[in-house]
Structures are given as structure tokens and as C-alpha cells.
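Quick one, probably user error.
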């Protein structure tokens, strides 16, 4: 499991290590230098003679880069440094002794065009807001040079790429795109969250021994296949369809019949023991014709999926969805609210066992209904803030869909799941995710009911659904062809199987 911590927590964890004389900067510099050498060799180039440009700011990251340049110079590289302010005294002395050449701002363009590697230490994890002054001018010129260079330089960032918010991934203006980010001690949320993630490249984490001094709860977590395997409810010899979880599904309409097929199909594929469909009669017949395993007689369920493809402009349909939601909340049954049904929490306070699955546009409408307007563009620029705000205002668990899916409940850590193929962004994929999440919730439905408000479990299960959904999209994507939502649903069993198999690797 990836755990990311806020910059303040990281600095506090570093303090006792520094007090007892641990050489943290030396370790960080060694890691940077090692990564540069490894990447140069992997590209088939010789280390001696490679030219590296260090971008050096006033903070500790600038010091890390100066010490790294000293190491690289001793390995035969030609190293240059461009300063964006006062330099770390120890780092400067080490760089000068090693033969690092310090250049003026007027030399930047020529060096940027000629060097093979750019080592970014302009700003550190404590920076807030947009780049300013010399740092801004340097990044602007570098991005201009890179845009017209025939051969791209290798860009390696120390801790975080310059220009992204270490704690939230916000990019307020220009930022320097990195191919690799060597993050010191522990990952920072901004490397995982959009839009900062798009600037970070590959993340290499360098252990510094901070773990014992970090808070018990990270700011952000991300599940791996092994985590999924550990939390999955695998049937045993005494299991039966009712113990494996029963999902109630009220989705689809005459206007959007496909949503019913996709959500029920995904609920079946997710491993629940039974799926009960409670939509319109005409749609019920369609669902059963495609999925004969689905039961249309209503009875006890352990989770509900409501809203996908339901025409909420039809008063009768909207009223029935609202009634099911109210009954489920009263009985402590987990609920997934998708599409138009998300609007129901605009006027209600619900427990965290109610999981809403908005995209940015739907979340904008919900926040506006709660008197906290954020535009779709503002949500895209600060998705973690928007998701947390929605959870706080409604009490619900929020699964905000995007290139990185975010899951959070009020007062609980944030979960972030990214890396899905871009082809996942296709009509009906959200219906598949809703059905899959309902299946996962149903398998833990009795436990969640006993816990009352959920105690953070729904957010973790939502993250698990996002992981499996993304992996299923990757399986369907295969060798690179376009995919549709039904293919994602069809690949869910394989995605689950791969995760379960990861424990034996």
C-alpha cells in the first residue's frame, strides 16, 4: 500500500533524525545521483562525458541537488548549476570542491539546449502557490527549450517537480514536467493526485527512516493488488449465495436501458452471491434475457445500487429511488448512488455507508445545491479538496471519478487510485463501476450495518472497486484497441483473479 504524508508531517518526522545527526541530505543526494546514473546507463549512454544541469533553489531540495552534482562530477559527468536564489552553503562548498560549474541566468538557454540531464531542485515541499521570480523565469525558459529540442533531456525532480503543490497536486501556473521524481523519505500526496501526477513521471521512493515518527494516519493511501487480495471475501466450503452478499439494483429506464445491463452485469462479475433487479418491468425482462442469473423477485439485500440510467425527471421513478434510499439508510444497508440519484444527497445528511459516485460535473451540481459552488474546472484543478468538501457537507462517502479516482469519507484518509487506461473514459463505464461497487459493498454489508456509519470502510471498498475497475479496463484494452464499457465488465473476474493470485507471488 502506498502511503503519502503532508509536507508538514514529513518535516516533523525529519526533525528527531536531524537532531541525532542522521545524514539525511547526504542520503538524498546519493539517491539522486544513483538514479541519474542508472537512467543514463539504461538509455545506453556512458556516464563519463554526460552533461547534467542542476536547477538549484534556496531550500533543502536545492542542497540535495548540489551534493548530487558533486557526486556526479566525481563520476566523470560535466555538471552545471543554475541558481534561483541563495544557495545551501554546505552544498555549494561540496559542489565547488568537486568542480561543478556555476552559471548565470544568461547561460540558461544554451545549457538547457546542450545538457543531457536536468536535475530539478528549484523548490521544495514547503512551497505554496505558483512559481515566482527567478524560479518562474527558469521553468518558463526550460519548457520553451524543451518544446523545440530535437532530443528530450532526462528530467529528474528532487522530492517534487517544481510548480506542483506537494500536499494536494495543484498546479497554479507553470510547472516543470519530470520523467522521474525521486521522493525523499515518503511519498507526498501531490505526486499521486491530479493534476500534479501528470508532472511527476515515475516515482522512486527513497527510505530515510522516517516511518516511526510519522502520524498513524497518512494524508492519502493507494491500494495495490496485494491489498485487494487481503481484503477480498473469498467464499469457503460453507458459503452460499446469501452469505456471499445480495445486491439490489435499481438502475436503467426506457430512455437508458443499457445502464441496467451494465450495472447488473458488473454486480454479478464482482463476486456477489445474488443480484436482485428492481427496475421497470420492461427493463427487467431485458436484464434477465442478457443475465439469466439475475433475480427479479425482491427480498433481503445487503447493498443497493441506485440511479444509473434512471430518468430522474420522471416523478414516479425519482420517488421510488428516494424511497429505497431512505429505507436503506434507516436499516443501515450500504447504498451506491450514481448519476441523477446523486442529487438526492443535496438536501439530505446521510451516513458514510451511502457512497456517491460523481464525475466533476455532477459534483459541481451537488456542491452548488449545498451552497458551496465550485465550477467543473475548479474541481478538476483541486479534486481532493472538492471530494473532501462534498463528504463533509453530506456525510456520504464520495468516490470522485477521474483519471485518478478519489474516495473519502468525512474525517477519514483520502484514497487515490490512478493508472487506468485512458480508454476507460467511455459511455457506460460509470454504470459498470456502480454495479461493481455495489457487489463489493454487499459482500461486507452485514459488517457495515453493524458498524453504523461505516468507520472508513466504505471509502476503502470504493478504492478497491476503483482499482478492480481500472485493472479490468487495462485487461480489456489489451494491445491498444478501443474498448467499450461491456468489455470492462467482462474483464472484472480476471482482474479480481489477478489480485487474489498476487499473494502467491
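Nope, works fine. Designed sequence:
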Amino acid at each position: 500500500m502506498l502511503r503519502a504524508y503532508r509536507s508538514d508531517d514529513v518535516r516533523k518526522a525529519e526533525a528527531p533524525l536531524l537532531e541525532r545527526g542522521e545524514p539525511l541530505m547526504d542520503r538524498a543526494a546519493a539517491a539522486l545521483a544513483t538514479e541519474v546514473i542508472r537512467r543514463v546507463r539504461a538509455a545506453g549512454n556512458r556516464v563519463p562525458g554526460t552533461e547534467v544541469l542542476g536547477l538549484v533553489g534556496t531550500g533543502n531540495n536545492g542542497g540535495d541537488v548540489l551534493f548530487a552534482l558533486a557526486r556526479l562530477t566525481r563520476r566523470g559527468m560535466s555538471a552545471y548549476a543554475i541558481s534561483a536564489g541563495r544557495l545551501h552553503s554546505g552544498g555549494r562548498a561540496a559542489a565547488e570542491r568537486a568542480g561543478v560549474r556555476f552559471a548565470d541566468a544568461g547561460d540558461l538557454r544554451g545549457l538547457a539546449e546542450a545538457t543531457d540531464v536536468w536535475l530539478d531542485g528549484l523548490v521544495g515541499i514547503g512551497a505554496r502557490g505558483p512559481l515566482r521570480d527567478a524560479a518562474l523565469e527558469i521553468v518558463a525558459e526550460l519548457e520553451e527549450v524543451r518544446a523545440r529540442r530535437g532530443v528530450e533531456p532526462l528530467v529528474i525532480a528532487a522530492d517534487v517537480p517544481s510548480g506542483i503543490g506537494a500536499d494536494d497536486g495543484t498546479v497554479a501556473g507553470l510547472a516543470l514536467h519530470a520523467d522521474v521524481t525521486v521522493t525523499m523519505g515518503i511519498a507526498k500526496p501531490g505526486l499521486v493526485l491530479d493534476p500534479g501526477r501528470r508532472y511527476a513521471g515515475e516515482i522512486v521512493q527513497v527510505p530515510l527512516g522516517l516511518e516511526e515518527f510519522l502520524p498513524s494516519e497518512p494524508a492519502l493511501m493507494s491500494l495495490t493488488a496485494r491489498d485487494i487480495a487481503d481484503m477480498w471475501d473469498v467464499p469457503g466450503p460453507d458459503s452460499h449465495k446469501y452469505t456471499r452478499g445480495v445486491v439490489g439494483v435499481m438502475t436503467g429506464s426506457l430512455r437508458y436501458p443499457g445502464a441496467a445491463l451494465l450495472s447488473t452485469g458488473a454486480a454479478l462479475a464482482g463476486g456477489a452471491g445474488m443480484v436482485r433487479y428492481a427496475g421497470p418491468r420492461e427493463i427487467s425482462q431485458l436484464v434477465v434475457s442478457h443475465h439469466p442469473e439475475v433475480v427479479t423477485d425482491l427480498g433481503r439485500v445487503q447493498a443497493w445500487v441506485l440511479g444509473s440510467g434512471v430518468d430522474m425527471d420522471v416523478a414516479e421513478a425519482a420517488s421510488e429511488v428516494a424511497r429505497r434510499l431512505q429505507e436503506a439508510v434507516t436499516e443501515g444497508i450500504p447504498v451506491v448512488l450514481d448519476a441523477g440519484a446523486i442529487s438526492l444527497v443535496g438536501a439530505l445528511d446521510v451516513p458514510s455507508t451511502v457512497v456517491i459516485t460523481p464525475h466533476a460535473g455532477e459534483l459541481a451540481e451537488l456542491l452548488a445545491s449545498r451552497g458551496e459552488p465550485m465550477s467543473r474546472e475548479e474541481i478538476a484543478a483541486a479534486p481532493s479538496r472538492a471530494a473532501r468538501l462534498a463528504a463533509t457537507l453530506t456525510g456520504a462517502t464520495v468516490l470522485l471519478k477521474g483519471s485518478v479516482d478519489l474516495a473519502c469519507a468525512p474525517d477519514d484518509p483520502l484514497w487515490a487510485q490512478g493508472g487506468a487506461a485512458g480508454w476507460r473514459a467511455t459511455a457506460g463505464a460509470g454504470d459498470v463501476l456502480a454495479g461493481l461497487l455495489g457487489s463489493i459493498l454487499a459482500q461486507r454489508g452485514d459488517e457495515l450495518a453493524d458498524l453504523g456509519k461505516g468507520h472508513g470502510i466504505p471509502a476503502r471498498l470504493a478504492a478497491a472497486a476503483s482499482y478492480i475497475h481500472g485493472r479490468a479496463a487495462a485487461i480489456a484494452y489489451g494491445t491498444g484497441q478501443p474498448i467499450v464499457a461491456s468489455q470492462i465488465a467482462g474483464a472484472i473476474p480476471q482482474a479480481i483473479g489477478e489480485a487474489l493470485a498476487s499473494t502467491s507471488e
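The chain has two domains: 2-222, 226-504.
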